[in-house]
Amino acid sequence: VSLDMWAPFIASICDNLPDAMNKICFDRFHVHQIISRALDQVRRAEHRIMLQQGESVLTGAKYILLRNPEKMPRSEKSLMATIQQYAAKTARAWRLVQVATGMWEFIRRGWAERAWKSWIRMANSSRLAPMKKAAATIKKHMYGIVNVIIHGVNNGHAESANSTSQLLKSRARSY
């Protein structure tokens, strides 16, 4: 069963599905969303401090930080190099996101668990409160994150259908 990490959904599945803890899969998108939001919180906090000091390196960097570094144009790669040089906290958080992004290729439960536990340790030692909070969420839901890696399940099609239905509802507001 692929779902987001909303507690009522989890409780309902656990109440109604035998051996639910081995069948619940938390979609990759939702896991990445938690980690990316933590990165953005770090960026915003550091940006405020840097602006007070007259430095605007992080201005306009929100979406660049979320982009795959392999697909960045040269100008964005140069901005990333500047960010890594001058915005240490944001650079640390960005590296944690990159490590987490690469951890979906495992096929064995043990390797996946060790990798995520290692990521949690790195996030906790980063001294960045939003990343520590994301690590706590990941730790709490580790069973479903490892399950999605092992079972290869995702709810992309369901999310796409939901997005389409929401768009249709929005467009039909006057009918």
Q: Which whole number gives the mean pLDDT?
A: 90
Strand content: under 5%
**Structural category:** mainly alpha
- Strand order in the sheet with the most strands: 1-2
Tally of separate helices: 9
Task: List segments where confidence is low: pLDDT < 50 over at least 5 consecutive residues.
Answer: none
Query: Considering DSSP H and I runs of 4 or more, what fraction of the residues is helical?
Result: 55-70%
- Shape verdict: globular
Could you walk me through the main structural features you see in this protein, from its secondary elements to its overall organization?
- The protein is mainly α and 175 residues long.
- It is 70% helix and 2% strand.
- It has a two-stranded parallel ribbon with strand order 1-2.
- The radius of gyration is 19 Å and the shape is globular.
- The chain starts with a strand and ends with a helix.
- The model has no long low-confidence stretch (mean pLDDT 90).
Give the topology:
Layout lengths: L1 E2 L3 H10 L8 E2 L1 H25 L9 H5 L7 H13 L1 H14 L7 H17 L3 H12 L1 H10 L4 H16 L4
Helix pairs in contact: 2-5, 2-7, 4-5, 5-6, 6-7, 6-8
Quick description:
With 175 residues, the chain is mainly alpha-helical. The chain has helices at 7-16, 28-52, 62-66, 74-86, 88-101, 109-125, 129-140, 142-151, 156-171; strands at residues 2-3, 25-26.
Key features?
single chain, 175 residues, mainly alpha, two-stranded parallel ribbon, globular
